[in-house]
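Hi R.,

Quick one: here's the Glycerone kinase sequence you asked about.
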Amino acid sequence: MGPYFANATDPLVDDALAGFAEAHHELVVHDARQGYVYARRRSASRRVGLVSGGGSGHEPMHLGFVGEGMLDAACPGRIFASPHNRQIFEASCEVAGPDGVLHIVKNYTGDRINFGIAAERLAHRGIPCARVLVDDDLASQSEDIAVGRRGTAATVLIEKVLGAAADKGGGLEDLAALGASLTSRCRTIAVASRAHTSPTTGEPAFTLPPGVLEYGVGIHGERADRSIGQEPLRELLERMAGALLDALAPTPDTPLVVLVNSLGAVTRLELYAVFHEVARVLSERGVTVARSKVGDFTTALDMRGFSLSLLAGDDRTIELFDAPARTAAWYSGLEP
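And here's the predicted structure, written out as tokens:
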């Protein structure tokens, strides 16, 4: 049976996808044959369908952000594995608008390949398609990493802002340009004291001695380039927030969107303490927290860790961030 509550490891993703659609039937429709979900309702002004996806095990990303004001469809792969290009193609055909479809893709080789193949198939079908490649992970910014920075938790912020822009009738080129701009203005750093538990072996993906943190861990359990000794939360957040601020270099009047995200096993009690220290650091650095979200957005199964994301916004970003949305994992400004 393994370490997780499941009938067996293999059907866990399919069972969870079916259960998600059953639990949120007022929001999403489940295509069980092709393996994706799509929004039951969307704005009549939307001219472009928004599609994202990636490996399972990161819930609520991406399924939890399908619905009014955010994604039109999401395609889950197996645990920590890319969705098949067939899923992406079929979901894109289902939700494409008059101006086509925009793929929001985290920067991993498998995702890039499969979304790329789906885009080629859409072109043959005559459906315009563009891509936003999210690469927010500061820890994987290195000349030694050929594929570049990984895509992690800030993907959710980009999906929210692009969803609002799509609801305002944005065209494909405009949305792709906005997505590229947003991606250039967001960074994430993650830390963990314990790796996730492998669904197949029941063992942790890696082990750390007591009192040691993996600084810059990836959402699939990728090891960081360094481990650090566990330190008081204040010092840890000075390190993390300071690194993000150095990378983004916001001015004092730049409105920041802050995302504090559990990687699976960190409690809300701890997350709010994290945010308290983040807010203190940002205030001391003279920058403005315009909006914030705290909770589970992009997990890594049961990893005991958290990530911190900053998005350097502007007036338009904040306006779109505040726009109404109603999904399983994000609610703002819409009547139920």
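The radius of gyration is 19 Å.

Cheers,
M.
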